[in-house]
Amino acid sequence: MSVRLPAPPMLLQGSSQAGVNLSLAATAWMVSGITSAPLLNTMLPALGALPFLLQLKRTPRGYGLQILGVLLLLSVSLALKPMGDQQTLLLLGSFSAVLLFGIGQEVSILPLQRHLIVEAGSTMKRLRSGQEIGALVGNLLAALLFPALLQFLPALVLLLPLAIVASRPATRPIAAQEASNASNTPPWDRSCALQGLVMGALFALLALWVRDVDGGRCFDFGMVLASYGLGRALGRWTPRVHRSVPYLLICALLLLSQATVPAWLAVLLFVPIGALAAASDAALVERLTPLGDEPLRWQVLVRSGAVGGLVGSIGLGLICQVLSLSAALPLVSAGFIALAITQPRTAPAQA
């Protein structure tokens, strides 16, 4: 039986995802302005992935930790000018907020998705569409809104509608399902982790790369993320190909983005990169069908990918700290080639 929600499930999911992407993009840009150390910048995605390694009780009310995380980020953004010389305190505040935000995501996302599917009659396909559109909106807002204070306030507003749903007690069937799965950690998948390792390395230093190498602005960083998000939203129309092909094409597009091309073209290249990344995600989730329902399979992808991303982001940060930021792209490109090589010879990808 469906229940009355403050908005359609797809809109709730999209609004929340917009708030998530806006919060994380704004934080990445803010931290890259506080310090140019590659290792410290890669700590952000690493801390966001850390909760996936913990045995946490899953509950929709954990969503409140995401709200607290954004409130802490708001405090840091307010303190940027008065405490501009207190780099350590600003970084500690940012890192603590991202960790809190990540814990909230880990404990609440699966029960909330099941709640929207079971009680509101939605489907995982619709929720995923809402997530992709929301991610695109959040990244566009990151490009258009600046400074940080003007980014975190809208992010907080976008997160609030789903918080209303999270605060409601579940009906008896859903409550029983959540209780049985509260401490049950989704399984770990090696292929998802390997993809997460390379993708995590790609995005770990993106803000620092745009700021330091390209001499870009927050608008440039946000538009790169928005282009990637647009590609993911269009990913369902990607042609069916062998699972190795998306990785090879992403590698080629990344290398092309570093050639002598106009800046706008380099940004637009992230549209097909996003579409190819979405296609590779869909192929991995399809392969995980024996594990259970779609929310669980997507959570396996997210969880395993985040664990791999933690290793990839810290590893790349250490290498770039010792060498230079220019070493990042060749290493990431080699990672995509390795992913392509390790794909099985059968079972083409399903977009």
Element-by-element helix/strand order: HHHHHHHHHHHHHHH
Helix residue percentage: over 70%
Shape assignment:
globular
Give the biggest sheet. Answer: none
Task: Return residue spans where pLDDT drops below 50 for at least 5 consecutive residues.
Answer: 346-351
Q: Which structural class best describes the helix and strand composition? A: mainly alpha
Give Rg in angstroms.
19 Å
What would you say this structure looks like, in words?
This protein is mainly alpha-helical and 351 residues long. The protein has helices at 9-34, 38-49, 64-78, 87-118, 124-144, 148-166, 172-181, 190-204, 206-213, 218-233, 244-257, 263-268, 270-287, 294-322, 328-341. Helix 1 packs antiparallel against helix 4, helix 1 packs parallel to helix 5 and helix 1 (9-34) packs antiparallel against helix 6 (148-166). The protein is globular and about 55 Å long.
Write a brief structural summary.
It is built from 15 helices and no strands. It is mainly alpha-helical.
